[in-house]
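Lab notebook, bench 4. The sequencing result for the construct came back, and we need a structural model before the next group meeting so we can plan mutations. Quick request posted to the team channel:

Model the 3D structure of this chain.
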Amino acid sequence: MGCVDPSALLFSRQRVNPKGAGLVRPWKSVRDRLFGYRSSRQFALHTGNRVVLLHNSGFFSNCSALLMSVARAQTQPLKIDVTQSFTYFTESGEPFQWADYFAPPPSTMRGAPQRWRRSRVAKLLPHHSIYKLLDYSVAGEIRDNYFQLSDKVRTRVREIEDSHLSVSLEDVLVVCLRGTDKGTEVRQSPIGAYVHRARRIMEKHKNLRVWVQTDQAQIRDTLLEQLGPRSFSLDILPVTEDAEVIHRSPAVSSKADFSRDLLAITWLMSRAHSVITYTGNVGYWIALFRGHARRLHQLR
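Done. Here's the predicted structure in token form:
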């Protein structure tokens, strides 16, 4: 007997309702939390071999919308047009340079792109879902074709490893927690839940150092104090003490450097031995770059 996509069970059970739509909303809520939610929004336009991204929000929110749009395309685009997107990540009047951050897609796609449109990746936005249930097979193929780090970002990754990480990532537990306005999008776990989970992992793996990554200074300081001398943070990405989202904060002095460092840091976090992450687009992309959910602990 072949493998069954677990989301299909939820979709089919919603339809088996002899008294009408009474069970549709509860099952929809369960499906949304498990696998992601449907959206009728048009995130991009497809013209010939070009995809024009229309969604314009946070860095990885834009990446998530682009990934879904690529999956939905009838033919795989070879050119990425982001002139209407990523405006929060460029100086005034300057276009966002996609090639500074990601390598161009190959002329011949790797994997099996004919199955992308039929997958959950083309139907559901999963950044608030359960990351253990992501379609890593299809999302991984799209990542490998469209979201490979550029040479510029790879160079920055090596610089950070050489100058700021005194320990191998194989000996690191990442604790990634979004502060600022994240609680307005989805209910987040309290800081104590991160501390409790980190201490359990630290007890099991005595060799692990704990990399605390957050955009909120108060959260960073609390976690470093609670997790003790085995914890550290990196002075790479800016932090703030207020509730304004960091990419719109005056703490960001260079938007190009911030974008490069955000991408490099997220990729580095994905390579750690273990990760504890919040539920949101950065957490989702840690999972995507990681390529699996082993030793990935998601709090929501």
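Strands lie at 37-38, 44-47, 50-53, 79-81, 124-125, 172-177, 209-214, 231-232, 274-277, 296-298.
Will bring this to the meeting.
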